[in-house]
Amino acid sequence: MPKVKIPRKSTTIDMTAMCDVAFLLLAFFILCAKFKPSDALSVTTPSSVFSKIAPETNVVTVTITPDSRVFLSVSDKNVSEKLAMINDINVSKNLGLSDAEKSNFANRPASYIGAPFSQLKSFLDKTPDELKNMQLPGIPAKDSTNNELIDWIRAATGAFAGSKMALLVRGDNAAKYPAFQSVLIAFKRNDQLKFQMITSPIAAPRGSELEKTQIVTGKKGVE
Length: 223
Known about the structure:
Blueprint: H1 16-32, E1 47-48, E2 59-64, E3 70-74, H2 79-92, H3 99-107, H4 117-124, H5 128-132, E4 141-143, E5 146-147, H6 149-159, E6 166-171, H7 177-189, E7 196-197, E8 200-201, H8 209-217
Parallel strand pairs: 1-8, 2-6, 6-7
Antiparallel strand pairs: 2-3, 4-5
């Protein structure tokens, strides 16, 4: 007696519900994402095969712009250290800053100090939108006799006492050497002899020993 063949039917899965969930998750992440604010200072850093990622906390960064102006910033997560710094500067330079102005320095995200002590009170009194439209003069750091960065690094060293402070230099390719030298003077005056340069990562040269090492280890750069 011949066997009865059961017709095979392809399995179908209704993806409607899964698509709905995917779009809901996408909408959730878009609405909850916190985007990084745009950098107020445009700097083109030198290229390097060094791939170590810069830390995000306990960081003091000195930025040198293409026209050799000097700025200082502290990582946003170090609010208490920033408050200690501005209190130190306020007392040592007798600036008469208000609590609101000191709070602006400590709590304003992605902010730079780019004004001499004589203009600091006015600088801290402005809103972020007002600062965007200003051409800030930078911290005076022309030479050892007029180098206000020395005081800022001293205040930072005191604020981070007891914890490890990462000192970073972010300099533009077009910046002049005297500006960089003035930054080094400020570091040496405060016994800060170890710092790191921020660079733009590039691939290792083809055929170099570094490229061969990367192929073997699977790493993209040097540590």
